[in-house]
Amino acid sequence: MPQQLALSRAARLIGVSRAALQKRIKDGGLHSFDGTISTEELLRLYPDLDLEDSGLFEQTRKIKEEAFRRRIMDRTLPAKEVLAERLFEQGMELNDLRQHLQRYHTLVVGLQSRIRELSGNSPAGGVALDQLDQWLERELRHVLGEEQKPDSLAVMDAMLKVMSAHVSLQPSGRDFFVEGNDTLLEAALKAGLALNYGCSSGNCGLCKARVISGQVMKTRHYDYVLSDPEKQQGYTLMCCHTAVSDVVLEALEAKSASDIPKQQLTARVKAVTQLSDSMMMLHLRTPRSHRLRFLAGQSATLGHAGAGSAEFPIASCPCNDRDLQFHVERGLGGAFGERVWNGMKPGENVTVYGPWGDYILNEDTQNNVIFVAFDRGFAPIKSLLEHSMARESNEEMGLVWGTSTPDGHYMNNLCRAWTDALENFRYLPVFMAGRDSAEAAAADVVDRLLAEFPKTRQADLYLAGPEIYIAPAMAQLLAAGFPKSRLTAMAV
Ligand code: FES
To answer: What whole-number distance in Å separates Cα of residue 208 and Cα of residue 192?
Structure first.
């Protein structure tokens, strides 16, 4: 009998995004029931699915590792205690099923003997009861002797349940998987969810969430004391617990920039990498016990002893764990920028203060999204894009990057890697040089956008870049009838 799988599990099994399956359902090509898909239906849609070929199976993870250029993650097995608990859970489930089957078997055998007994005692109805007895005998022989082909997707799903746990959030209905040794909080952040938290080390209690169903396990020490009523109601600290079984959690998510408090922390320089003649990447790592909570697209003020401070858009995604990236253009950022370009070294301390700004993704829509970057505007766009990729909820994503200098596409390889790794992503680099004015250059980019992305008018559009390009680009889009409600822009 085919098994019903939750949409996220089904997507994970066959190595496509959840948005891709949602699109299939919307188009009528895939039947779903109550938010679930049967393994039979999945195999009908993907008949060539080869579960032995881990390429398909691992595709989502490869995207994260190769295209996001993150540290290798999620590949480790869960801790042995967690594995043991998960195997125990599966053993219990299996045992339940066996007992259930045993009861059915006893019932059928009892029924058969009762029919025979009645048939012998009832000459009037004997013929019918004999026929029923023969039919039952025939069907039992057929069912028990039939060679059952294993449901390969169900088998793989059972294996996945041991390796990772599925978490659904209430009231938002969003979900994510917990893999390796990740805590609930780490797994949620990697999946692009903006859950409430503070210290991430068991001291503040801000990551409290209520376990509605399922089992969680403590994996890190914590000092915060949950009150007795909280314990009775099932509250847990997400930063110190992992999921043993599939879990439903009640937890609040940040909806807007105003839900994120201002924070100050000291991070260490991990690397300073020159990306082009005019762009440097500053890579910071925050302490394990003090991460920066922010929403993709926001900015932060960076300070360095003796080199003042300056504000920069964060070029990485909140899903990048403790890593923060900033793109520092030559000549910008005052003394701080000067320091980045001339002598900032790995291991030095940088003060991070923020986050700032409300240039964030509208999480309430599942429209296609198109990002339009002008020159250094790529930094906040990169953050938004990586966040969209982690969320996996947009059917299609596009990036148009207009630059005014020949080496302006300073992360071209990354954009091309995204194109290779993601079926639903398209990248269009535009070189704007040779135009008489910034207006003409911006018009060029908008014309290419409208011509080469036919679904632009149904998409949410995010623009970022120097004001000289953003203002005319916005004016042109509005004049072309693009709805203001779906336009978000930031001058950087
Ligand atoms: S984030 Fe502070 S206790 Fe979990």
So the answer is: 18
The structural domains of the chain, with segments of one domain joined by +, span 4-65, 80-147, 158-250, 257-356, 369-491
The model scores a pTM over 0.70: yes
Indicate the CATH number for domain 257-356.
Answer: 2.40.30.10
Q: To test ligand 1's pocket by mutation, which of 184, 200, 235 has the most ligand atoms within 8 angstroms of CB?
A: 200
Span from the CA of 240 to the centroid of ligand 1 (angstroms): 8
Please identify, by atom number, the ligand 1 atom nearest to the C-alpha of residue 198.
Answer: 1
Q: Are strands 247-250 and 164-170 parallel, antiparallel or unpaired?
A: parallel
Cα(201) to ligand 1 centroid in Å equals: 5
User: Do 257-356 and 158-250 fall under one CATH topology?
Assistant: no
Compute the distance from residue 238 Cα to the ligand 1 centre, in Å.
7
The architecture (CATH level 2) of 369-491 comes to 3-Layer(aba) Sandwich (3.40)
Phi and psi angles of residue 48, each rounded to the nearest 5 degrees, phi first: -90, 10
Sign of CA dihedral 199, 202, 203, 209: positive
Q: Which of 409, 410, 384 has the alpha carbon at shortest distance from 397? A: 384
Distance between CA atoms of residues 106 and 164, nearest Å: 36
Nearest-atom index, ligand 1, CA of 199: 2
Tell me the three state secondary structure of residue 440.
helix
**CA separation, residue 249 to residues 12, 216, 265, 321, 467 (Å):** 21, 10, 29, 21, 43
**Residue 202 Cα: closest atom of ligand 1:** 3
**Contacts (Cβ under 8 Å, ≥6 apart) of 125:** 118, 119
As to burial, measured by CB atoms within 10 angstroms (0-12 exposed, 13-18 middle, 19+ buried), residue 320 is buried
Q: What string of pLDDT tens digits covers the 492 residues of the chain?
A: 667 777 777 887 777 777 778 778 878 888 887 778 887 787 777 776 655 443 444 444 554 454 444 444 445 678 888 888 888 888 888 888 888 888 988 898 888 888 888 887 776 667 888 888 888 888 888 877 766 666 777 777 777 778 889 999 998 888 999 988 899 999 999 988 999 998 888 999 999 999 999 999 999 999 999 999 999 999 999 999 999 989 999 998 888 899 999 999 999 999 999 999 999 999 999 998 888 999 999 999 999 998 999 999 999 999 887 899 999 999 999 999 999 999 899 999 999 999 999 999 988 877 889 999 999 999 999 999 999 988 887 888 999 999 999 899 999 999 999 998 888 899 999 999 888 899 999 999 999 999 999 888 889 999 999 999 999 999 999 998 888 999 999 999
Q: Which CATH architecture has domain 158-250?
A: Roll (3.10)
Ligand 1 site, CB within 6 A? 197-200, 202-207, 224, 237, 239
